[in-house]
Every structure is written in C-alpha cells, then in structure tokens.
Amino acid sequence: MGWTGMKANYYYKNGMINRKKECDELIEACPNDYKLIKSALIGICYYAAVRMLKKTEQPVVGIVIKTTVRMKEDLNFLYKWVSEDMGPADTYCPDNILDELSEADSDWAKNWRAECRKCNERKQKLSAMPVGSEIKVTCNGFEYIMTKTVLPSHSTPQWINFEENFKFTVDDIVQLGFSCIDLEKSEENKMEHITKIWKYIFTFDKKGEITFESTGALECKECLKTIKLKDQISWESTLRKDKIGTVICSMPTEKDAFAHFTYYYVYLTEDNPRYAISLIQKKMEDRVDFLQKETSRLNLNIQSLNKKIILLNEEKLEEHDKN
C-alpha cells in the first residue's frame, strides 16, 4: 500500500501537526466500519486496537499507521495504513494495546504480535539496567560490547562502545537483539569507586614544539553521574577501573592562544600517556594550524600597513619639496 496525502485538521499550539489525533480521526470517520478501542503514537508510527464492526464476530485487530509530514505542501499529512495480518515492519505496539486484541487467525498477525511483545520486553530490560551495565550486540557479523553510560551534557543514559567510540540507539539494540554480560558482576564493578585521576599537562609554543608531562594523581569522589576533582573540573561519566573512560581537556581561549605558549590540562582514569597523546594530538595540530594561519594573516596586515606608511611618507616628502 502506498502513501495517502491529505490536508491536516489538527495542530498543536506550536503549529506542528497532531499525528495521533489525525489517525484517530481516520478510524472514527468510519463509525459503521470501525470502533476505536485504544491507540498510541510511538515516534512516527500510530498503533491502535480497532473493532471490525462489519465482520460477524466483530474481532478487535491491530492497526499500524505510519505517518510523515510535509509542512510546506498543501497535502501536509501523509499516512500508510497497514493491518496486522499484512505483517507490519514496525513492531513497537505497546502491550496495553496488544492486550485488547482478539485471538488472531493469521500467522502474519501472530508473528507481528509476538515480535512486538519481544521488542517491548527488550526495551523494558534495557531501561531497567543500571548505569555501567554491559551488553553484547551482534551487527553485520561483528560483536560489540556496549556500556550504559551518561555522557557529558546528557541526562539520559546511552549505550556506548568505548573501544571504537560509537553508540547504538535503544531502537538499534532492540532490533538487533542483545545478551547481558554478567550483570551481577557489572553491578559490583560499578560500585568500585575510582580513587585517582591522572593529570597531564600539554604545552606547545608558536613553533609547534610540544612537551608532555605528568603531574601525578589527584584524589576524586565518585557518584553515578558526576566526578569532581580538586581542580574544580567536573563532568558526567561512568568511569570504571578497567576502562579509560573519559579524557577531559581544559583548553585555552583563542586570546590565550597567542601567549608565549599554550597549555592543556588532560585528565585520565589511569596512567596511560600514550593514550592521552593519541586523543589530544588532533586538537593540538588544529591549534597549531590556527596559530600559523593567524600569524600569516597578521604578517600580511603588517606588510599592508608598511606599504601605506611608505606611501604616506612619500606624499609628505613631495609636499615638503613643493613648499
């Protein structure tokens, strides 16, 4: 079934289309055919339990309506209606809607309901896992270890692979499936507090010469989300003893970059200078490149000013000779 377009009738106060109400109206507009029992909008997909009034037994079946909007067009609301016996690809129908459905005769409908139940169970399991939990996810034949982590400037935990520095969304993990990695041990490790943070100083001058030295370890206190150092540096993280969880750089301003030298404070969860160097090197190269470009720009400005000064001096000499 293709997409059907129409002019939306229901909007929120901010001008956006109320997709759920539009879909409710699609069903309620046919009172002789359907009776809406319960509905929900998950993302851009609308799920509903609908009683089929024209059938003898009047069963309650599952309906999926996928939606999209095109605000700049006249027909700004588009939808695609799929019944459960067609085997919808979207499988996030809430359990409270599935509970309203009559017993299914179609294998397509049975499989869709089972897949929805499975997805809901996985989402609930992922949500209940504490920060610091680890799972194994297989994608395209490769296995990845994902850690539930609260990233800086985020309040919602995310699933991060620290080895290759990428993340999976919850929906990705739900679709791919996962297995827990010794959850009890993970919970135990999560409670083992890191007692030291290693501090390094990067310095480099305008010539690009770099020095790197350790200033030793700092004591810290850990809670689930925030670590505060004696240097008043704080960030959200879930640092673990067996991970180099976070690198924090206290970076100079652009104005400070023109000082005799520029320095960075680098913090790690273990003494590993090579790792720190590899992570900060690109930032250093970018800053050196910035300094070189700024130096070239200033030199060009100086040359231009020198030319103007020479011209002014020549004009003054000519006036002096005339007088």
In short:
The protein is an alpha+beta fold. It has six helices and 16 strands.
Please explain how this structure is put together.
The chain is α+β, with helices and mostly antiparallel strands and 323 residues long. Helix content is 31%, strand content 31%. The chain has helices spanning 19-28, 95-98, 107-128, 170-176, 183-190, 273-322, and strands at residues 4-6, 34-42, 45-52, 60-69, 77-83, 134-139, 142-149, 158-161, 166-168, 179-180, 196-205, 210-222, 226-229, 234-236, 248-250, 261-268. A hairpin with an 8-residue loop joins β7 and β8. α3 packs across α4. It is elongated, with a radius of gyration of 31 Å. The model is unreliable at 183-194, 221-247 and 255-261 (pLDDT under 50).
Number of helices: 6
> Roughly how many Å is the radius of gyration?
31 Å
Written as H for each helix and E for each strand, in order along the chain, the element string is EHEEEEHHEEEEHEHEEEEEEH
Strands in their spatial order, largest beta sheet: 14-13-12-11-16-15
